[in-house]
Amino acid sequence: MTALTQVPRFTIGTVGDTSNTSRRLLVIGVSVLSLVACLSLAWWQWQRFESANGTFQNLGYVLQWPLFGLAPAYMFWRMRKLRDREAAEPAPTPTPRPKLIPDDDGDDELVAYNRYLAALNDQENR
Fold it and tell me: Contact 30/72 with Cβ under 8 angstroms?
């Protein structure tokens, strides 16, 4: 066996899968990091609320910080749902082209009037 036969072969599908996997791991990492950071801030606000100089504002933050921590996970989930919904929708059908109406040169007066209108249109577009 030579060295050339041992080289892994990549296709467009496998490269795309690697990119999607790393993107998913990044999204999961950011979401978990955000949740942990915001839960620790909620715990800190809870400690402030229980202290002697704690206020109800601290209690409000205790309730808000976990929601802030869940926001990135919800955002990525929502973007994925919208992307899947868009991919599932069928492509819009193109509108049919209008059929050409054949010229009817039977009426000399109509032909002369159409030439007159075409000449006016040409003068206006100059």
Answer: yes
